[in-house]
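Comment thread on ticket #2218

A.B. wrote:
> Attaching the input chain for the structure job we discussed in standup.
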Amino acid sequence: MHIEVIYESLSDNTKAIAKAIADGVQEAAPNATVEVHEAGDPPNVTPNPDDLVILGGPTHAWRMSTAASRLHAARGSRHRNASAPRDGVREVISELTRLSRPCRAATFDTRLGIRWSGGASRGIARRLRRAGYEIVGRPEGFVVTSAIGPIAPGELDRASQWGYQLARSLVTSTDGAS
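C.D. wrote:
> Ran it. Output below, let me know if you need it in another format.
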């Protein structure tokens, strides 16, 4: 099984969550090839239906980022040299649907820890489902303390555990199908 964790991140919060997810996935599926890529890097998704794409990004204005929201976030960033990433999750979804046949997918986001803050993961899952991807697991949100971070205490461990559980369920279902 090949697993791609693809993320969009401006202030490295979503990147850290993606890496924690990948660590959990690798622990649960030690024989799987697990790769982590930033949006805009060429994905290595193969057309095998047993493969998995885990796609995540930050929540901007209660949903997936846009080119405009990335630019706005970069301008407000505390990082001196921050610039808006040229590609985000929307562009990744377009590229995935253009380059490969659908496989399994899971989604995550980073968000503020307030009820009405919304989340990008549900919209990411909806778009992937429309493109023919089989969504596994529930879209998941990981909390940051403010728009620019840091990640809330315990969230990196929770991300690793989510990745572990996700991969464990896939490995178990694949083993049971053999």
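A.B. wrote:
> Thanks. Noting for the ticket: The domain at 2-177 is CATH 3.40.50.360 (Rossmann fold).
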